[in-house]
């Protein structure tokens, strides 16, 4: 085998590896670049996220509301005994503050009310609060459902999100994974090149 032919056979897998690596590198870059539409031979090129940001926002909003964070999730949290249990001490604290410090300010004669009567009133109010809170949270959950559409909130946030920030965030998180994709392209290209060499030698 002549040296020129040998060099060609060696170059085939190397060039194929370079093409495989470059192809994946370009594919990753085209997620965000070019930022503005570029027309080449009548074909328009633009970064996937720039071109389809609104569509992605709508789809992600629907998916997140359907599968990750829905009004049912909000309802369950607001009406859960654990959440209501955390509200009870807050109400109790404010009721104590009102009875001890602000009640007298409503009318001087209220200072003459026996402490036992005030304590009895406090206990009845807390019992009423504990009965009323679950209904209050049910109403709050329904009001939130009317006022806030989860998918619309997410859609608006994604549409308003700067693509440059998204690119920076995504690459900072997945830098190693993107590098791996590039190298996989190179390795596959190299293997395909070897396969071509094998066919040539048959």
Automatic annotation (TrEMBL):
One of its GO terms (cellular component) is endomembrane system. It comes from the Bacteria. Keywords: Coiled coil, Membrane, Transmembrane, Transmembrane helix. It holds the Pfam family DUF445. InterPro entries: DUF445. It is found in: Endomembrane system. The chain crosses the membrane at residues 6-27, 180-199. Residues 137-164 form a coiled coil. Belongs to the UPF0754 family. This is DUF445 domain-containing protein. The lineage of its organism: Bacteria, Pseudomonadati, Pseudomonadota, Candidatus Lambdaproteobacteria.
């Amino acid at each position: 085998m002549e040296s020129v032919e040998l060099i060609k056979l060696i170059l085939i897998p190397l060039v194929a590896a370079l093409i495989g690596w470059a192809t994946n590198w370009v594919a990753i870059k085209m997620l965000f670049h070019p930022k503005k539409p570029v027309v080449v031979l009548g074909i328009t090129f633009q970064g996937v996220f720039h071109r389809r940001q609104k569509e992605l926002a709508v789809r992600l909003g629907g998916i997140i509301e359907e599968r990750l964070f829905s009004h049912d999730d909000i309802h369950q949290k607001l009406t859960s005994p654990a959440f209501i249990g955390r509200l009870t001490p807050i109400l109790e604290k404010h009721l104590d503050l009102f009875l001890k410090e602000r009640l007298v300010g409503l009318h001087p004669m209220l200072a003459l009310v026996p402490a036992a009567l005030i304590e009895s009133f406090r206990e009845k109010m807390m019992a009423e609060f504990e009965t009323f809170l679950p209904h209050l949270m049910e109403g709050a959950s329904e009001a939130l459902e009317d006022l806030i559409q989860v998918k619309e909130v997410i859609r608006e946030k994604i549409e308003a999100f700067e693509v440059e920030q998204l690119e920076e965030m995504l690459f900072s998180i997945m830098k190693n994974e993107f590098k791996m994709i590039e190298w996989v392209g190179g390795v596959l290209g190299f293997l395909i090149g070897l396969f071509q060499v094998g066919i040539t030698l048959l």
